[in-house]
Fold:
Amino acid sequence: MDKIVSLAKRRGFVFQSSEIYGGLNGCWDYGPLGVEMLNNLKQSWWRAMTFRDDVEGLDASILMHPRVWEASGHVANFTDPMVDCKECKSRYRVDVLLEETSVKKKKEILRALEPEAFAGQLQDQKVIDEFALRIAADETAAAIIQNHMTCPNCGAKQAFTAARQFNLMFKTFVGPVEDTNNVVFLRPETAQGIFVNFLNVQNASRQKIPFGIAQIGKAFRNEINTKNFLFRTREFEQMEMQYFVKPGEEDKYFEYWREQRMAWFISLGMKPEWLQWHKHDKLAHYAKAAFDIEYKFPFGWGEIEGIHSRTNFDLSQHEEFSGKSMRYFDDQTKEKFIPFVIETSAGASRSFMAFLTAAYSEEMAPTGSGGEEQRVVLRLHPSLAPMKAAVLPLVNRDGMDDIGRKLTNDLQKSFRVFYDDSGAVGRRYRRQDEIGTPYCFTIDSQTLVDQTVTVRERDTMQQERIALDAVKTYLAERIL
Ligand code: ATP
Structure:
């Protein structure tokens, strides 16, 4: 992870937010290459999800009527139990505290909590971990934590407060008066913007069920502990799609979207063995089924997307809270009903980090002088790579630079392309490898004679000569 965070900063993928003021926890800024890659990722998702007949796009506002969040259950339930250390004032999410504690400590806590349930089972690490997480939401678990755990930050013993439920929504006020009537929330998910617009979109687009609405946008959660770079942040982007189906058809579409979403990650270069399904055994009361796609991060498996079968819960809630019908009229059967929903909910920022991590590789590569040296290469899928190509005149004279400039200008009409005419060409290749540029076009003395250039491919480092006027087509065929 350290290497990836350091590369991300050095090469301008991701910076700490407000770094000159010491940073703001849980917030990150995407630099020149990061914003390109993030846009490419979102564009790829948008293409996969909306360039089809049955899904429409939407861009809803971040601030919404506060009743939305009462209807959705976020005001009452979007909480995590947390404890504070009375000595150093550090705040912890109970489940995270438990997750990160030693096995020995976990056993001690679990034994104290439920001695009978655990007799004989405490040898199995998986049982311990699962149980630790299950009890984390429980108030009594927090009391036990109070008695048994030391603060990881200052080492104080038995210094934790009782557990409190902490709402993860950021609250603010509309207009100049800060009173309860003017409270609004920064949305903690993009999905509700889709639900409240369900009939607007359906009427405007004349879609018939089954159909979906897709949206990419910022979401905010006042996470108690932020950690692992972009994995758990307070401001992040989601790519969500709600697919509205006839009740009774939800299982079929749930399976369909599970397949589609897994295939999308693999189509962008993820190896199947780096991904796994995590089935939720404990479901929200309204949910029928929920699976997460998890990626094997350097710190362990972590969710990058959730696929949920959500019944008609959200639309029914909005019907009840708003007093407006959320019913779909089926003009063939003449029935009116509230559709069921399959949701695909991916984090753009988390997926960005997964793709960056998956792409990072270090290997030995031959130098021009017959030796070997280490090269860092980001094996990003070409459609995600921030720069699609680099144009490298061998020297910046003899007309090579003019040809290089002209080629760059031409390519830049369609692609992000980097022009570099300084330093040894081997070093220039390495700099492009490190940011994942899939192709380098080198202009040398032979170009002046026969109008051909060398193409060097990032992963194999193999080179071939192609005609200068074929470069654009060559790139388009491989990138788009
Ligand atoms: P977690 O259990 O990790 O908090 P979650 O189950 O609450 O996640 P969802 O509400 O299902 O997550 O959100 C859908 C997606 O949004 C997640 O798969 C993840 O990619 C992304 N996401 C959620 N919370 C964060 C966060 N704090 N930082 C970055 N991405 C997030």
In short: The CA atoms of residues 223 and 253 lie 32 Å apart. DSSP finds 17 helices and 23 strands in the chain.
